[in-house]
Design goal:
Elements lengths: L1 E14 L2 E14 L3 E5 L6 H8 L6 E10 L2 E2 L5 H7 L5 E4 L3 H4 L6 H11 L6 H11 L16 H12 L6 E5 L7 H16 L3 E5 L3 H7 L2 E6 L2 E7 H6 L4 H8 L46 E2 L4 E2 L8
Parallel strand pairs: 3-8, 3-9, 6-7, 7-8
Antiparallel strand pairs: 1-2, 1-4, 4-5, 9-10, 10-12, 11-12
Helix pairs in contact: 5-6, 6-7
The structure holds iron/sulfur cluster.
């Protein structure tokens, strides 16, 4: 059964220089229990996508498209209904940067209580918090501590535990391993794997393709606000189709392999990106028809947005 269905989702930010088209016509779907990895370089729209799906886009607005969660269209709901029925109960978010996501002047317990109160939780607060904190492998004594008394990995686990408090069926994890050392990264990845085994669906946003290969069933590659390739994790790694996906995979350093390649140039401005394929200026396969933005062409497990795959 489909848990998340996103169709033609677009969002923008108004800035002093003009409207930034941060997300354009993003489409994908995810089945119950599946994990989706979203990858791409900085400012490609990964976090904007996550925040749009959970309706928490600050300073920006969704301009078109639809998001269905568990078969219900959630963008048309008023804020109160969405809050009562969906936010934290069916969909929640692990925010980027555990250091800045926790309030330094309150204990972890106070911050957990705040979430439960905010979402009108009617059950046993103590039991709910205790179950959630032990599900991420933390000892209950962390509840009485302030964020600065915890290590980076403990803080990140506390943030994950907070996102899981009301047992949502879908969680968005925005760069949950950034700024953590490799050992802590491994702990967090193992924790996400465990939660996946227990049936949780999630969207993992990261620029680290190695991490995505560990836990994603499906992968979406973002470039300049567009999802340029979407498909099964296997297909994206074994047979990447979009020139940007290929370049991204070739840029991963290997211990004994060839020198990693880099992608020359920079992405276009998203204030007026123009009609052409957004990768045009950096693409080694650019052709005349690339001056028109390509549609999504079907692949074995998803789609690719590139004129190289136009059968006609
Ligand atoms: Fe390159 Fe053209 Fe494909 Fe864009 S549409 S990625 S420019 S080949």
């Amino acid at each position: 059964m489909t848990i998340l269905d996103v169709k033609d989702l677009s969002a923008e930010y108004q800035t002093s220089k003009g409207r930034v088209h941060a997300l354009q016509d993003v489409t994908f779907s995810l089945d119950d229990g599946e994990s989706l990895g979203i990858a791409g370089e900085s400012a490609c729209g990964k976090s904007t996508l996550g925040l749009s799906v959970i309706r928490m886009l600050q300073g920006g607005k969704i301009t078109s498209g639809s998001v269905s969660l568990d078969g219900e269209s959630i963008l048309d709901l008023d804020e109160k209904t969405f809050d009562k029925k969906f936010r934290w109960k069916k969909i929640s978010m692990i925010f980027q940067g555990a250091m800045s996501s926790l309030d330094p002047v309150f204990t972890i317990k106070d911050q957990f209580y705040e979430v439960l109160k905010q979402h009108n939780f009617q059950g046993d607060f103590k039991k709910c918090i205790s179950e959630s904190i032990s599900s991420v492998g933390l000892d209950e004594n962390v509840l009485d501590k302030f964020p600065h008394e915890l290590s980076g990995g403990m803080k990140q686990r506390a943030i994950i535990s907070m996102a899981l408090l009301l047992k949502p069926s879908f969680v968005i994890a925005d760069e949950p391993t950034t700024a953590l050392d490799v050992l802590i990264q491994a702990q967090i990845i193992n924790l996400l794997k465990k939660l996946k085994k227990e049936g949780m669906s999630f969207m993992l946003i990261t620029h680290d393709l190695a991490i995505l290969s560990e836990i994603s069933d499906k992968i979406g590659i973002m470039y300049s606000g567009q999802m340029v390739e979407f498909g099964s994790s296997f297909d994206i790694y074994k047979n990447p189709k979009h020139p940007y996906t290929q370049a991204l995979l070739e840029s991963i350093p290997t211990l004994h392999g060839t020198k990693p390649k880099y992608i020359k140039g920079t992405p276009p401005s998203l204030i007026s990106p123009g009609e052409q394929c957004r990768f045009l200026d950096r693409c080694p396969h650019a052709m005349d028809k690339c001056k028109k933005d390509p549609p999504n062409f079907k692949t074995d497990s998803g789609y690719v947005k590139c004129w190289l795959y136009d059968e006609k």
